[in-house]
User: Which sequence fits this backbone?
């Protein structure tokens, strides 16, 4: 049936060329360096005609739905998605970036096909653009999110899932989340993020095979990821990279990255007991947050990703007035330039009527300091008091507050947001982010990046 669906999709493509920008010209497809390339002129990557527009993504997704429906899958196919526009306004300019407003557009689509007998296939794609050159302008479709800038077209998720009784197996591009804490997750090692905006990050998928065996009270989670996906770091020439004054005088180039060739493995055991829930986990792989090395020949810097081993645990204990959660991870490894340290979080959360509260402390203890040059938001948020509060005003309105205050008082982050649903499909949000502190503190260095944020989303 799957082969029949592919053949049908090919036929529909040949019959619906009007949906595509090349208007009847031949279609070339090639996989190269983890990227899928489309060309409307029959030209492979590098030649003329290899541009692919956002309209093509919508056309392909629509034709895929038609193809699946035509082979009898209409009863088991579901889809959802949204179109979102966002405007960030910064009152202050910063050295190297005079832009005060950044506009973004994102189209996200997800679909699931249930094939029967416990099998299903889930896929999703992103199409995006922006006004600040944070997104590439080529027509390539990213399969691994390794680009310096965000891809214009990306496979967000594409995996096959099999479930039988207590066993669930998933293989492909997927999202894997570990940890119980809400404020910071030291054990969440298969969850790289897009840190183009450091205080408003989004998770990236990873290519992995995952098997989970769940008895109801105890579960075993095994993960193998053969292909490394890094976190995306801010662009060197934009406001979320703060360079020392002595470095700003010289042009600094991005010399790319050195990616590891090895895979990653992890195991997690979770147990639900009488009055508590706890997990232990182990990870052997690569840190998705980079260390930075100079490349003098190119007059720039390069990212590289050290080997990382992590052992950790988490627990949640409900008490009469609130629930206590704790999570901790020890980070080691064989790289001589990387620190060895512990990050831990302890928090309390409570629901009171329409209010929800979460507050706690994230700490760090360095056991072997090597003083590397790195980009580590998880460590930057440690040694801080963290909090979050939310109020559901009614079925259509809510407000939320989030804060982080460094224990030494040298850095502070506060975000407030108001959200309102408009009808069945529209949602609007207005937020303001305030950042204060010292230039030598991870949070404080972004003291010129306070900004307002307007978001409008249409869901379908």
Assistant:
């Amino acid at each position: 049936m799957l082969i029949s669906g592919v053949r049908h999709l090919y036929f529909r493509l040949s019959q619906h060329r009007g949906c595509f920008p090349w208007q009847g010209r031949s279609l070339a497809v090639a996989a190269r360096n983890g990227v899928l390339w489309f060309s409307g002129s029959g030209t492979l990557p590098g030649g003329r005609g290899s541009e692919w527009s956002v309209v093509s993504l919508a056309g392909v997704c629509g034709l895929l739905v038609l193809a699946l429906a035509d082979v009898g899958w209409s009863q088991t196919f579901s889809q959802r998605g949204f179109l979102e526009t966002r405007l960030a306004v910064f009152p202050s300019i910063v050295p190297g970036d005079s832009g005060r407003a950044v506009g973004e557009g994102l189209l996200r689509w997800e679909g699931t096909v249930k094939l029967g007998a416990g099998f299903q296939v889930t896929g999703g794609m992103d199409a995006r653009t922006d006004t600040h050159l944070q997104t590439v302008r080529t027509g390539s479709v990213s399969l691994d999110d390794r680009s310096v800038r965000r891809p214009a077209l990306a496979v967000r998720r594409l995996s096959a899932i099999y479930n039988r009784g207590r066993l669930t197996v998933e293989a492909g591009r997927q999202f894997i989340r570990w940890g119980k804490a809400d404020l910071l997750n030291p054990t969440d090692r298969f969850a790289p993020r897009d840190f183009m905006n450091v205080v408003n990050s989004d998770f990236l998928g990873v290519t992995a095979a995952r098997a989970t065996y769940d008895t109801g009270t105890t579960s075993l989670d095994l993960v193998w990821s053969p292909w490394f996906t890094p976190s995306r770091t801010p662009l060197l020439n934009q406001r979320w990279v703060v360079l020392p004054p002595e470095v700003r005088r010289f042009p600094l180039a991005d010399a790319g990255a050195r990616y590891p060739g090895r895979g990653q493995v992890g195991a997690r055991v979770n147990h639900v007991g009488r009055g508590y829930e706890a997990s232990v986990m182990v990870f052997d792989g690569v840190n998705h947050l980079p260390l930075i090395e100079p490349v003098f020949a190119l007059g720039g810097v390069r990212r590289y990703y050290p080997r990382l081993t992590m052992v950790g645990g988490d627990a949640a204990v409900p008490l009469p007035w609130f629930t206590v959660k704790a999570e901790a991870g020890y980070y080691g490894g064989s790289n001589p330039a990387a620190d060895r340290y512990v990050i831990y979080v302890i928090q309390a959360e409570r629901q009171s009527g329409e209010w929800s509260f979460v507050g706690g402390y994230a700490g760090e203890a360095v056991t072997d300091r090597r003083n590397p040059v790195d980009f580590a938001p998880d460590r930057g948020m440690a040694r801080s008091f963290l909090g979050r509060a939310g109020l559901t005003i009614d079925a259509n309105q809510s407000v939320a507050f989030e804060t982080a205050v460094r224990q030494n008082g040298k850095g502070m982050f506060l975000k407030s947001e108001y959200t309102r649903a408009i009808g069945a499909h529209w949602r609007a949000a207005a937020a303001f982010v305030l950042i204060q502190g010292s230039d030598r503190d991870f949070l404080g260095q972004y003291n010129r990046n306070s900004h307002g944020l307007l978001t409008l989303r249409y869901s379908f």
